Amino acid sequence: MIEEMLQSSPGLYNFAIFFLFGVVLLLVVLGFVTYSILAERKVMGYMQNRHGPNQVGGRFGLLQTVADVLKLLLKEDIIPKVADRPLFIIAPVIAFAPSFMVLATIPFTDKFQFADLNVGLLYYVAISGMTVFGVLLGGWASNNKYSLLGGARATAQMISYEIPLVMSVLGVILLSGSLNLNDIVHAQKHGWFILLQPIGFLIFLTASVAELSRTPFDLPESESELVAGYHVEYSGFRWAFFMLAEYVYLFAMTALVTILFFGGWLAPFSFLSFIPASVWFALKFCAVLFVYLWFRSTFPRMRADKLMEFAWKVLMPIALANIFLTALIKSLFF
């Protein structure tokens, strides 16, 4: 019955296929979130001379994050009496939904991508900017001064660092001549853009850490000042939505760095092209992910005023100079 209905309606059939792939991607991302948290805790433990999780799930603690997720799902869902109830409920969803939507345009290999958009990079930037509304609404709806201050910090930080983030990839766009992520990957056949755009890469990496609100730019959640920041009043699965959004964005941003600066799924040398494209993408992805985890274990948290000054007074001028230099070099030598 279902098979006949799908065959009689091609549009419905295509929708079912894409829905199935979407569910598979969601499960893959949830698996990544589960074990990236575990990897982060193990890496931080190693760097701080600790064991990290080593009880639940064997000597490597492979089920520790699974146990933590189950604990969150079983915890009581508390909504403060003085909170703005509708906004309080919808804010985590608004924060999470864009983080999953941006994955649609990420080309993991030349054959695995949901939407090959001509403006894929622009789509990523535009959709990811919507998360700030969920964070701000969560801080406002909680009717708590710490939440509100955390939400305001997050809004100022995300807007400020998104400008140098976008400006840092203009050099990549100039060299590739396209906003299509597949075209950007193919433009790196003869050399990764990290070699041609080292300044742009450093700016992008720094700004992306701030966009993800990770150490040393985790001012919206700084527990030493704001208890827990914009989600201090959240508990259970609603709090988990905010954390899920952060790690899904970590997945997406790591993939984007791999595509923009490390050639995506392309082999670094032609004689290594016999290795599957998915393997190359996974190796580069893991290397970039390790850098993000490494940063969290290494740098101290910045002061709020220094954080904003760094975006506007340091990253912005350097990004502008990088655009000018790239345009000049391209006009003279390409």
TrEMBL record:
Instruction: Give the source's domain of life in one word.
Output: Bacteria
Record's keyword terms, sorted: Cell membrane, Membrane, NAD, Quinone, Translocase, Transmembrane, Transmembrane helix, Ubiquinone
Membrane topology, as annotated, equals: Multi-pass membrane protein
Presence of keyword Signal? no
Alphabetized PROSITE patterns for the sequence: COMPLEX1_ND1_2
Transmembrane ranges? Answer: 12-38, 87-109, 121-140, 161-179, 191-210, 247-267, 273-294, 314-333
Q: EC class of this enzyme?
A: translocase
Function recorded in the entry: NDH-1 shuttles electrons from NADH, via FMN and iron-sulfur (Fe-S) centers, to quinones in the respiratory chain. The immediate electron acceptor for the enzyme in this species is believed to be ubiquinone. Couples the redox reaction to proton translocation (for every two electrons transferred, four hydrogen ions are translocated across the cytoplasmic membrane), and thus conserves the redox energy in a proton gradient. This subunit may bind ubiquinone.
NCBIfam families from the xrefs? PRK06076.1-2
Q: Subunit structure, per the record?
A: NDH-1 is composed of 14 different subunits. Subunits NuoA, H, J, K, L, M, N constitute the membrane sector of the complex.
For this chain, the family text in UniProt reads: Belongs to the complex I subunit 1 family.
Report the protein name in the record: NADH-quinone oxidoreductase subunit H
